[in-house]
Specification:
The strands form three sheets. Strands 1, 2, 3, 4, 5, 6, 7, 8 and 9 form a nine-stranded antiparallel β-sheet that branches. The protein folds into two domains: about 5-130, Elongation Factor Tu (Ef-tu), domain 3 (Beta Barrel), CATH 2.40.30.10; about 135-250, Rossmann fold, CATH 3.40.50.80. By secondary structure, the protein is an alpha+beta fold. Helix 6 (about 230-240) links the parallel strand 13 (about 225) and strand 14. The longest helix has 15 residues, at about 150-165. It is globular. Helix 5 (about 205-220) packs across helix 6 (about 230-240). It is built from six helices and 17 strands. The protein binds flavin-adenine dinucleotide (FAD) and FE2/S2 (inorganic) cluster (FES). The site of flavin-adenine dinucleotide has 23 residues, from strand 6, strand 8, helix 2 and helix 3.
Length: about 300
């Protein structure tokens, strides 16, 4: 492994403890640290998702990029005792330099404990971790294909595009209209939105393929980004084979332990050669979580 790690500990000026790790691999942030944050906003968005805004002393809004994630040290209580840190995409930053936002699905031990974190409480987060989406302000239009937690991961990218004056087309998939979270995804950025639902069958692979092909032609995006659904990823990969001029990127969601490239629990197979000749394992937490759609190997057979 090519990464160099340097651990420093400091309690200077009464500041909370900080362990900084210098990471040298391309695409990664220059400095990863543990930050003790105050909870400044924590509320339900709908029946399953919560919004969390933290305030750190470090200027995380300046150093965090769209697509990156943090490892959250979820609190423990009598019922929930999460051992590992939980990876969570950055949903947004600001308005102050130390402000960092998360949008999370309350699902298991860690996130159920997290959901109980009170306003004014504190928690530790480690990051920023991972790489970022390829983005160029000279793009005319991007297409974002999102479902579930993919909304949280791609929301900063939508904001980046909006601020740069790049057109955004959003293909959003959800179980029902009540699960869509369109306002939470776009956050005021003007976009051409196409919503599909499980409840009326419009999110089926067949229906989405027709819609996707139409959007790729009519909207002519330079890049298509996706996150939140393996089924959508595989569809996008298949469809993009017919549009070689359009770049595709996916933010992968993989089970993680360390989140820093050390334990190898997040490795996945990728095909960097495009023809099956350059298959290699990569760490989603370090070389990713953002990868070219065309490099993802969907099904792996061993032996
Ligand atoms: C890079 C990245 C970014 C993510 N961003 C978001 C986000 O913005 N919002 C959001 O709601 N969720 C996000 N997730 C998924 C989130 O990490 C899991 O939902 C969360 O870890 C579940 O923890 P739990 O203790 O509640 O669930 P449990 O099922 O009790 O967790 C048990 C173990 O499995 C791991 N695990 C469970 N589900 C997942 C999963 N889907 N992905 C990765 N590890 C998992 C947990 O981290 C834990 O170690 C992201 C995952 C990754 C890898
Ligand atoms: S989670 Fe440990 S190497 Fe990626």
């Amino acid at each position: 492994m090519s990464s160099q790690t340097l651990l420093e500990r400091s309690t200077a000026g009464g500041a909370p403890h900080r362990a900084a790790v210098n990471v040298a691999s391309p695409g990664c942030a220059a400095s990863v640290a543990s930050h003790r944050c105050a909870v400044v906003e924590h509320r339900w968005v709908n029946a399953r998702y919560k919004y969390l805004r933290l305030a750190a002393e470090a200027p995380l809004a300046r150093t965090t990029r769209p697509g990156q994630f943090y490892q959250l040290h979820c609190p423990t209580d009598e019922v929930h005792q999460p051992f590992l840190l939980r990876p969570m995409s950055v949903y947004g930053t600001g308005p102050d330099e130390g402000g960092i936002e998360f949008l999370y699905n309350v699902t298991g031990v860690g996130t159920k404990a997290l959901a109980k974190l009170p306003m004014g409480g504190h928690m530790d987060i480690v990051g920023p971790l991972g790489n970022t989406f390829t983005f160029d302000a000279s793009f005319e239009r991007i297409l974002v294909v999102a479902r579930g937690v993919g909304l949280a991961t791609m929301a900063p990218l939508v904001r980046q595009a909006g601020a740069a004056g790049v057109g955004v087309t959003a293909l959003m998939s959800a179980r029902t209209p009540g699960d869509l979270m369109q306002a939470e995804f776009l956050r005021g950025v003007p976009a051409r939105v196409h919503a599909v639902y499980d409840s009326d069958g419009t999110s089926s692979v067949e229906a989405m393929e027709v819609l996707l092909r139409r959007l790729l032609v009519e909207e002519a995006p330079q890049v298509v980004y996706t996150c939140g659904s393996h089924r959508l990823l595989m569809l996008l990969q298949r469809v993009l084979a017919d549009y070689p001029q359009i770049h595709g990127e996916v933010a992968m969601e993989q089970r993680m332990a360390c989140g820093m490239g050390v334990c190898l629990s997040c490795v996945r197979l990728f095909d960097s050669g495009g023809s099956g000749h350059l298959k290699q394992f990569k760490r989603v937490c370090r070389e990713g979580p953002v990868f070219p759609v065309r490099e993802v190997v969907g099904e792996v057979e061993f032996g």
